[in-house]
Write a structure and sequence with these properties.
With about 150 residues, the chain is α+β, with helices and mostly antiparallel strands. The protein folds into 2 domains: about 40 residues, no CATH class; about 100 residues, GMP Synthetase, Chain A, domain 3, CATH 3.30.300.20. The protein is about 30% helix and about 35% strand. Helix 1 crosses helix 2. The protein is elongated. It starts with a strand and ends with a strand. About 20% of the residues are buried. The model has no long low-confidence stretch (mean pLDDT about 95).
Length: about 150
Amino acid sequence: MECTVSWTGAAGTRSAMGFVAETGSGHVLAMDGAPDAAKPEHGGQNLAPRPMELLLAGAGGCTAYDVVLILRRGRHDVRGCSVKLSAERAETEPKVFTRINLHFTVSGRGLAAAAVERAIALSHEKYCSATIMLGKTAQISTSFEVVEVNA
């Protein structure tokens, strides 16, 4: 797996802290920092997600992917899956994630709560590289709800 991250700041523009990442699969995404009035040379322009937000989003995508795949392989009629992540970070550098909660909303027809719970547990304990890696510094908790779809 490869990724190239390049600074987009113009020469002589110390306040621009934007970056563009090009992934090995050929996709491009932008990152930026929050404006910092006290230290403008450290701040961004708020034009794109923060790198840590992308790390959290990547973890959500990784585990949601697993949950859907596990349910489909079990021949469950899953129609939708979203996960809302909320995280806390350390107060001092490095400001790693210290707590992450993942709340899944899984919709489908006839989905048993036990099947959803099992899929989430398998992702969290065995398959999701991102959340397992983040679990080295953060306490990770999960919750879920199942929504019945009638059509």
